[in-house]
Automatic annotation (TrEMBL), chain A:
Pfam families: NADHdh. The keyword Transport does not apply. GO terms for biological process: aerobic respiration. NDH-1 shuttles electrons from NADH, via FMN and iron-sulfur (Fe-S) centers, to quinones in the respiratory chain. The immediate electron acceptor for the enzyme in this species is believed to be ubiquinone. Couples the redox reaction to proton translocation (for every two electrons transferred, four hydrogen ions are translocated across the cytoplasmic membrane), and thus conserves the redox energy in a proton gradient. This subunit may bind ubiquinone. It is a multi-pass membrane protein. The lineage of its organism: Bacteria, Bacillati, Bacillota, Bacilli, Bacillales. Its main location: membrane. The chain crosses the membrane at residues 6-25, 73-95, 107-127, 147-165, 177-195, 233-251, 263-283, 295-314. NDH-1 is composed of 14 different subunits. Subunits NuoA, H, J, K, L, M, N constitute the membrane sector of the complex. One of its GO terms (molecular function) is quinone binding. Keywords: Cell membrane, Membrane, NAD, Quinone, Translocase, Transmembrane, Transmembrane helix, Ubiquinone. It is found in: Cell membrane; Membrane. This is NADH-quinone oxidoreductase subunit H.
Automatic annotation (TrEMBL), chain B:
Residues 37-66, 79-108 form the 4Fe-4S ferredoxin-type domain. Its cofactor is [4Fe-4S] cluster. The keyword Hydrolase does not apply. This is NADH-quinone oxidoreductase subunit I. Pfam families: Fer4_7. [4Fe-4S] cluster 2 binds at residues 56, 88, 91, 94. The gene is nuoI. Keywords: 4Fe-4S, Cell membrane, Iron, Iron-sulfur, Membrane, Metal-binding, NAD, Quinone, Translocase, Ubiquinone. It is an enzyme of class 7 (translocase). GO terms for cellular component: plasma membrane. It catalyses: a quinone + NADH + 5 H(+)(in) = a quinol + NAD(+) + 4 H(+)(out). Belongs to the complex I 23 kDa subunit family. NDH-1 shuttles electrons from NADH, via FMN and iron-sulfur (Fe-S) centers, to quinones in the respiratory chain. The immediate electron acceptor for the enzyme in this species is believed to be ubiquinone. Couples the redox reaction to proton translocation (for every two electrons transferred, four hydrogen ions are translocated across the cytoplasmic membrane), and thus conserves the redox energy in a proton gradient.
TrEMBL record, chain C:
HAMAP family: NDH1_NuoD. This is NADH-quinone oxidoreductase subunit D. Residues 120-283, 291-365 form the NADH-quinone oxidoreductase subunit D domain. PANTHER family: NADH DEHYDROGENASE [UBIQUINONE] IRON-SULFUR PROTEIN 2, MITOCHONDRIAL, NADH-UBIQUINONE OXIDOREDUCTASE 49 KDA SUBUNIT. It is an enzyme of class 7 (translocase). One of its GO terms (molecular function) is NADH dehydrogenase (quinone) (non-electrogenic) activity. Its main location: membrane. Its EC number is 7.1.1.-. It catalyses: a quinone + NADH + 5 H(+)(in) = a quinol + NAD(+) + 4 H(+)(out). The keyword Kinase does not apply. Pfam families: Complex1_49kDa.
Length: 324, 150, 366
């Protein structure tokens, strides 16, 4: 048990690093295909080593800290941003067996820990002593706080249905019907809010390349920059896993196709979500910062609340009630 | 919402369309005949009329002539002919004014070098640059007397 | 009480969305722009002064580098002004070729605008799609005059090259292809809710302001002024073609987008007719003396470039070189309205409004 406590997370870290490496490549490939291009194909066969080369480049770069930056905070920010991203993975049940910490308030833990990353981004933006970084950091804080609320509200429907915050139990509850069907409104709100939480297009305002150059990490180079990027993609991993667990039935096989191992089902559903994120990125323009706020408070939040209400009502109706 | 979904459909449809990129450094790009690449110079044809140097908008051509080695013959022959590709804009005017087609365009366009000095091309280099020479030279320019353009 | 402070933000000259080397000194209060001041001149090459030492043929390649997105129209401006001053007759075939390349270039230029504008707003794919289709135009140009950007195609009295065999048919094919592609753009962008949100009602000005600032091109037409030099002061053979001048109603960025997209369609119409009526045979070069000596005098001609009224003012003292050459560059004039538009806007609208004006820095700084 003790050995597993040590080896497991290390193993997971490598799996996650592997995922990040190939998610970045896959993202570039997908966007390339969508844009009638080939995507990276120069480093390694089929471009497989492209990200490895990129990371290697980042690692050997000079470590620059701007003279007027707040040095200690500047060093600390990437760490604050990355640690929660990895910590949230502990509660995700990949299959019935593979889960590191199965405790009663898993969902709450995820939501709570993932908010800490904002502090890292805000600190990074502030400590850089750069105006673009400051604007990016401020936007990021405002955006993430706004979208956390609909994100949490949208999953309340599920919590009500299952009667538990335990992610394992939530998956168990979806053996017959995935929550995407009865909780479709909740799913839509969750998906939009999660894209926003991930700072991805169309909600990539904190790093809005064409406006703020690079946003909060404009002054970061080399290893520290890599950490910010790593945190971002680990969140893609975490969020796609969470969406799979909450709405797509986790490792449960559809149509009784149980001969395919559960982990494969999980990976399939998970990849679908990740692909969707990339696909959206290749299509959408960026939303404006004030519209983003309005959208969160005036559209998503009422929808999420309505979803809670509808779930509560439907739960009491005899025939439909058994789906809720 | 409908517009966004439609957009997603269009991007997805484009995923399966053929790729439009060129695999450029692997396969050199084929340029059409009229392409304005690095000039080829033929000293045999040159009559040292200096027109190319005069028309050049950036003054990148320098040439000197010398007396014809055969004392019987009149006129000059070319001695040195240099084009500075740091400032040459490949505008095609030199080949347009050349009365004997001593200087003509080729389809070669690879000009990247490690040192700026290498961009200074002399007569010998330009003479050896004899691949992919443009076939159709100055066809648009009427050769008949009186109808000549500048 | 919290004390708030205004902040000076330096946008550019190295910024992803300033379309080159424009610098904007923006005073912001939070994310609201209080004041904006464009600083230009980072790309100044002194084309007008250089031209005083060049003869008329030599100036043409220099004009390629002003508005590098539509070099053909620039070529035409100087060539047209010189011809007018000399009173030259241009062969019909040359005029047709000129119109075809100018309209192709207008489409290419608007495509680049559309792509980069969407890139400014945050969408990546339309940019690549626009360049994919622009590539076809550039390939056509490459075949015709041997260059993709800096064409140096027109000459005083005609054009340098006749169309190679089959080229006109290729233009006809491209017109059909492009018509199909327009649907894709409209599907991808025009109906996109986020795009509408980003552009509708932003950067509005009325027709009086537009006229006072001397705006031209789509920037003027978007306010409802039906002013297109191809129609109002016809030059070349534009009178022969049947096309419409699209105008906007509200003067916002969305209208600008629709206006320019519609202009592509109108250009395609012109191209279709030009390809159909393209004359068989004939010279592409008029009777021009060997050394161009422009008679003493002064002339101003304005033509409709993709960005607006591109004017060329030549003062000649009877030499083979202009005594003074002045270009009225539409980008430069259109840029003047930027500080007025930016006041009170959100910083996110900055790039949207700047992109909407459609400036080319090579032309602004000349």
């Amino acid at each position: 048990m003790n050995l597993m406590m040590v080896v497991g997370p290390v193993l997971l870290l490598f799996i996650v690093l592997g995922f990040v490496t190939y998610a970045i490549l896959f993202e570039r490939k997908v966007i390339g295909w969508i844009q009638n291009r080939i995507g990276p194909n120069r480093v390694g066969p089929w471009g497989l080593l492209q990200t490895v080369a990129d990371v290697f480049k980042l690692l050997i770069k000079e470590d620059i800290i701007p003279a007027k930056a707040d040095e200690s905070l500047f060093r600390l920010a990437p760490v604050i941003a990355f640690v929660p991203a990895f910590a949230v993975l502990a509660v995700i049940p990949f299959t019935e067996k593979i889960q590191f910490a199965d405790f009663a308030v898993g969902l709450l833990y995820y939501m709570a820990i993932s908010s800490i990353t904002i502090i890292g981004i805000l600190v990074g933006g502030w400590a850089s002593n750069n105006k673009y970084a400051l604007l990016g950091g401020m936007r990021s804080a405002a955006q993430m706080i706004s979208y956390e609320i609909p994100l949490v509200m949208s999953v309340v429907g599920i919590i009500m249905s299952v009667g538990s915050l335990n992610l394992h139990e939530i998956v168990e509850a979806q053996q017959k019907v995935w929550f995407i069907f009865p909780q479709f409104v909740g799913f839509a709100v969750f998906l939009i809010a999660s894209i926003s939480e991930l700072n991805r297009t169309p909600f990539d305002l904190p790093e809005a390349e064409s406006e703020l150059v690079a946003g909060y990490h404009v002054e970061y180079t080399g290893f520290r920059f890599a950490f910010f990027m790593l945190a971002e993609y680990v969140y893609v991993f975490a969020m796609a896993s969470l969406t799979t667990v909450l709405y797509l039935g986790g490792w449960n096989a559809p149509f009784g196709l149980t001969f395919i191992p559960p982990i494969v089902w999980f990976i399939l559903k998970f990849s679908l979500i990740v692909f969707f994120l990339f696909w959206v990125r290749a299509t959408m323009p960026r939303i404006r910062v004030d519209q983003l706020m309005q959208f969160a408070w005036k559209v998503l939040l009422p929808l999420a609340l309505a979803n809670i209400f509808i779930t509560a009502v439907f739960k009491e109706i005899p025939v439909i009630g058994k789906f809720y | 919402m409908f517009g966004l979904v439609k957009g997603l459909g269009i991007t997805l449809k484009n995923m399966t369309k053929p790729k439009v990129t060129y695999s450029y450094p692997d396969e050199p790009l084929e340029m059409p005949d009229r392409f304005r690449g690095i000039q080829h110079f033929d000293p045999e044809k040159c009559i040292v009329c200096n027109q190319c140097a005069r028309i050049c908008p950036t003054d990148c051509i320098t040439l000197t002539g010398k007396k014809h080695p055969d004392p019987e013959k009149k006129g000059k022959v070319i001695d040195t002919y240099d084009i500075n590709f740091e400032i040459c804009i490949l505008c095609d005017l030199c080949t347009e004014v050349c009365p004997t087609e001593a200087i003509v365009m080729t389809n070669n366009y690879e000009l990247a070098v490690y040192s700026r000095d290498e961009l200074f091309k002399d007569l010998e280099w330009l003479h050896n640059n004899n691949t992919n020479i443009r076939v159709e030279n100055n066809s648009a320019k009427p050769k008949a007397p009186g109808g000549k353009s500048s | 009480m919290l004390r708030t402070e205004e902040m000076l933000l330096n946008v550019g000259p190295q910024h992803p969305s300033t379309h080159g080397v424009l610098r904007l000194i923006v005073k912001i209060d939070g994310e609201t722009i209080v004041d904006a001041e464009p600083v230009i001149g980072y790309l100044h090459r002194g084309t007008e002064k250089l031209a005083e030492d060049l003869n008329y043929t030599q100036i043409i390649p220099y004009t390629d580098r002003m508005d590098y997105l539509s070099a053909m129209t620039n070529n035409y401006a100087i060539v047209h002004a010189t011809e007018q001053l000399m009173g030259l007759e241009i062969p019909e075939r040359a005029e047709f070729l000129r119109v075809i390349v100018m309209e192709l270039n207008r489409i290419a230029s608007h495509l680049v605008w559309m792509g980069t504008y969407l890139l400014d707003i945050g969408a990546m794919s339309p940019f690549l799609y626009a360049f994919r289709d622009r590539e076809q135009i550039l390939n056509l140009f490459n075949e015709l005059c041997g260059a993709r950007i800096t064409y140096n195609y027109m000459r005083v009295g005609g054009v340098k090259w006749d169309a190679p065999p089959g080229w006109i048919d290729k233009v006809g094919e491209f017109v059909q292809y492009m018509k199909k592609q327009m649907d894709e753009y409209h599907g991808l962008i025009t109906g996109n809710e986020i795009f509408i949100q980003r552009t509708k009602g932003i950067g509005i000005y009325d027709r009086e302001t537009a006229i006072q600032f001397g705006l031209s091109g789509a920037n003027l037409r978007v306010t409802g002024v039906k002013w297109d030099l191809r129609k109002n002061q016809p030059y070349s053979i534009y009178e022969r073609f049947d096309f419409d001048v699209p105008v906007g109603q509200t003067g916002d960025l969305y209208d600008k987008y629709l206006c320019r997209m519609q202009e592509i369609v109108e250009s395609l119409k012109i191209l279709e007719q030009a390809v159909e009526q393209f004359p068989e045979g004939g010279s592409t070069m008029g009777k021009v003396p060997r050394v161009l000596r422009v008679p003493e005098g002064e002339i101003y001609v304005g033509i409709e470039s993709p960005r607006g009224e591109l004017g060329c003012h030549i003062v000649s003292k009877g030499k083979d070189k202009p005594w003074r050459l002045k270009f009225r560059r539409p980008s430069f004039y259109n840029l003047q309205i930027l500080p007025t538009l930016l006041k009170g806007e959100n910083i996110s609208n900055l790039v949207a409004i700047l992109g909407g004006i459609d400036i080319v820095l090579g032309e602004v700084d000349c």
